[in-house]
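Journal club prep — side note

Before the paper discussion, L.F. wants everyone to see what a predicted structure for a comparable chain looks like in token form. Sequence:
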Amino acid sequence: MDPAASAPEGASDPRPLKRPKHAKLPDKILALPHVLKLLQTFLMTPERATIEAARTGNMPWLAQLLENYDCEVPQAMVYAAANGQLRAAVMQFFAFFHCALTDETRRILLKSLELQACGAAHAVLNDAAGNGQLEVVKCVVKHANENGYEWRFLVTSSGSEALARAITGKHAGVVDYLLQASGFRWNLVDAFEAAVVTDNEVLVEKIYELFSQREGDFKLFIELAWWGKLRGVQYLYRNGYASPELVNEAFLKTAGFHWSPVVIYLHDTGLITSDVFDKAFIMAVSATWTTTKTVEYFCHLKRASAEARSKAFVTAHCPERVKILLENERISDASIIDAFTLSGYAHRYLSKHYLSRSIDFVKLLGKNACIPAEVIGEVFVTAASKNCPELVGLLRNDPRMSGEMVEKAFVGAAGEEDCKLVQSLYDKKILSPETILAAFESAAAMGSDDVVKEIVMYLSDAAHVPRLIRLKSFVEALGATEDLVKKSFIREVICDQLFDARAPERFETLAKCMDKWAVHGTGSKARLSEPDVSDLEKPRQKWFRSQEQRERGAHCSPGSSLREILEG
């Protein structure tokens, strides 16, 4: 719906739109009221546009504004809603701006105001608790209870921060009131940390008991470690609340996911077992959400077993972490080979989505002498077959690259659409005529027209490709492709290769034979098939093409088969 839709018939606008100041518009524009109104609409602030959308009953526009501008509505309405006058505020809105009072309008505004009011109440509660304003806290809590806002204070899964802020500010009255308030989920992890920091032993014990009742015994220690609350972790450990098993569980959960000083503290207790350390080490290296700082710390400790180092190295997804392991740990040759193969996505698994990371891994690991030639070749062939010229360029000049792998890569690249990649892989000294023939058949079946033409040029090199292979490749390519454009091009190539001005009968016979090839289907599904050329048998009129052919006794007649013509 046009944002500039007019108000319902009969509705007056108490706040008429004004022409923008200092605006100089052409007379032709000034003569078009609807254009001026549209320009004025575009110049509105979000709040003014919200009022206009509601006033005119333009619900799609109203919903869009409330969504795109964080549900912005006039602040007076938000304050009224936060004071428990939500529905009254909406009614005043309708009455003041002469809005069309529809159920849809009411629903959208109520939802917007309610969310806005809840957020406002949440912010007020946190600030009031942190500043020790008990009366304000009581008012907001009462309002939240009456309007069902309690659970909406869960901005995070941990709960509201009001209690922790009150403890940090040492506002005992506010703390006592919040602890007695029902229906609220306070962030007890932050509250416990605040109680420890402020040396409030009574609150420490009380919050520990509350957390145990809500989440279960001994869980607070793990949660404190997870959230990096060092003072709380130290308190519970020193006072006998953390068993060796609990310390190991907290270490595994924390070190395997993110870095904090708690990781160092837990390890320094001397209670971390080798098995738990290895598990945390593998998680820290292979997980995508951990930091390199965690990996550096683990390497500094020199505790990981050979098995853990190998597993972590192979499963690492970050080249930077792999580099840290190579510089600080002893990694076996087998692990380096496995990591190179997996990170390079050999054996069909190369993905362009991870191409940048694959290139980094190849640069980092590819120069290791322990990686055998066949592994280098497999990654090279896969990169060519998946049209990844960056990886092909990195590995092309590797001294371990065999000619066999270059040939496989050339055939694989021919089936793609990158002509430059095919050109980069062509090497007359390495590629046999049979390989070029296989590449041409692949290109004719799946590659682009440019690739087909490029390989035709390679096949036309009489000094490198024997005539029989060259002509055979063109004929077989006709059967390999269903693309009529490619078929026509290949036919032209065949004619160019076979045509001899001294033997016009030979060309005419070939043309007649090709003209009678049957066409099956239409459009993109059209395909050609070779007919039985025995129907073309005619009285033989022998002719000789050259002195060499005459000496070999080679001959061909208008009634010869296509194979005889090509082999003539």
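L.F.'s comment for the group: The longest strand covers residues 518-520. Keep this in mind when we get to the figures.
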